[in-house]
Amino acid sequence: MILSSPGCVAFEIFGFPVYFYGITMACAVLVGFWITYWVGQKYYEQKNIIFDLAPWLIITGFLGARIYYCLLNYQYYSEHVTEIFNIRQGGLSIHGMFLACVLFLIIFAHFKKISFWELGASMVLGVSVAQSIGRWGNFFNSEAFGRPFDGFLKLYIAPQYRPVEFADCEYFHPAFLWESLLDLAIFVILFFIMRKTNGKNPLFITSLYFFMYSIVRILIENIRTDSVCYVFNQPVAIIVSVMIMFISLSGILYSVILARSNLHNE
């Protein structure tokens, strides 16, 4: 089976191109926030908090994702400054979004006097689905694909999008699809845990998401061809993912110990 992008432009309005990437990201945000709202209402009584959060979190997330991406590609954007503002064709980093949104949620939770971990647990289910949908934006842009691959399920990449070293290769790993499916699997796992525990121990749920996604990102990054900004011959994305994995593992272990302690005290 061969996958092939229909192109990055979905249609035009008065000569202005509307990109599949933008449509995909809009769908991802809407679905992600709907799931976040549902989880927050059902398990944490977070009535209308998501409506207060939504516009600011969207802005913060996109700014963080874009700034982080541009910093990783500093050499290019330092020479093409105006391109920093051109996000219609892609160029967002999930790690930048994580950092910006976590900092924002910590500040928001502090001033609203609500639990940061409950906010986090509400959001990670929505985020995992949003990531699963958002990865299809990479498909339409013919980006974030893997190494050359000629197996049963493969992705055709047009010559103009191929890395120089693989200019003669037609088919590649559909890395966007693998990550999309794995992100969806993360959502399913978190959903069943949320239902089984009735939302208790939000620290565990939030930490588990970051732990699982970090593993997914490490696996996918190892087959991608577009990694940037290497440190010690390793892509920064892998290094950051390893750091997040160990931090989140600490959160998982602490939450388990805390839950056992509370159970013993009861």
What topology does this entry show?
Elements: E1 2-4, E2 9-13, E3 16-19, H1 20-44, H2 49-72, H3 74-79, H4 94-112, H5 116-141, E4 154-156, E5 171-172, H6 175-197, H7 202-221, E6 230-231, E7 234-235, H8 236-265
Parallel strand pairs: 1-4
Antiparallel strand pairs: 2-3, 4-5, 6-7
Helix pairs in contact: 1-2, 1-5, 2-4, 5-6, 5-7, 6-7, 7-8
Widest β-sheet, arrangement of strands: 1-4-5
List the helices and strands in order: EEEHHHHHEEHHEEH
Question: What structural category characterises the helix and strand content?
Answer: mainly alpha
- Terminus-to-terminus distance: 56 Å
Distinct helical segment count: 8
Description of the molecule:
It is a single chain. The chain has helices at residues 20-44, 49-72, 74-79, 94-112, 116-141, 175-197, 202-221, 236-265; strands at 2-4, 9-13, 16-19, 154-156, 171-172, 230-231, 234-235. The protein is mainly alpha-helical and 266 residues long. It has one domain. A three-stranded mixed β-sheet has the order 1-4-5, with no helix packed on it. A two-stranded antiparallel ribbon has the order 2-3. It has a two-stranded antiparallel ribbon with strand order 6-7. A hairpin with a 2-residue loop joins β2 and β3. α1 crosses α2 (49-72), α5 (116-141) runs antiparallel to α6 (175-197) and α5 packs parallel to α7 (202-221). The protein starts with a strand and ends with a helix.
